[in-house]
Amino acid sequence: MRVLITGGTSGLGSAMAEALRADGHHVVLTGRDADRAAAAAAEIGANGIAMDVRDPDSVRAGRDRVLDLFGGLDVLINNAGIGMRTVNPRFLTEPQPFWEVPEAGFRDVVETNLTGYFLVAKAFVPDLLASPSGRIINITMNHETMRRTGFVPYGPSRAGAESLSRIMAADLADTSVRVNLLLPGGATVTGMIPDGAVDTSKLLPADVLAAPVRWLCSAAADQVHDERIVATEFDEWLRHRRG
């Protein structure tokens, strides 16, 4: 499979890229910085390109580069995102009410975490429709976090992305493209949590998404559509699905 992972230079994106490369998939990962993307990709034998998911021109240029590399695309993993620490570095210990959130910070998070999912999916849908097994995997988070005190704008941005994913699935239901949601199931070691704010031993590892994303990119998931898969519950979910 030819796979694009946005925001693949660190955290969940990097771990998913490594897992999929280990399965032999052709992977291209993106980052805002071209050198960083190239360096991260080189470590696992993948391709790295610059893409700012907030910028339609950058997304279109990234698509052109992916087509140059692969000639098409089978799987889009929308993962690029920024967290609460970009608008409030002390968000866990000193939650900030929504009316104190800087307007620029609000826009930046929403444009990355929500608008970015829209722009990248919009750009690549023609290529996914041309694939014999097109797939979109949208990375999301726990519903509790979407409603948590002091989590504006991160919570709303991810809630919006989840709604967008459900509508993507509805719009593509009668096509060959499958759309699913994937989330860790808890706070993870991704760099979004301030140093010293929590006991890191209680956090999920960055590779928590490895097993479910490998399965979603396999032939076993050819007909899986509009599912919301929680990585920490994946084994149980899969047993139930298999009956």
UniProtKB/TrEMBL annotation:
GO molecular function terms listed in the Swiss-Prot or TrEMBL record: oxidoreductase activity
InterPro entries the UniProt entry points to: NAD(P)-bd_dom_sf, SDR_fam
Organism name: Amycolatopsis acidiphila
Alphabetized Gene3D superfamilies for the sequence: NAD(P)-binding Rossmann-like Domain (3.40.50.720)
A Pfam family it matches: adh_short
Similarity remark: Belongs to the short-chain dehydrogenases/reductases (SDR) family.
Protein name as catalogued: SDR family oxidoreductase
Record's keyword terms, sorted: Oxidoreductase
UniProt superkingdom: Bacteria
Keyword flag Oxidoreductase: yes
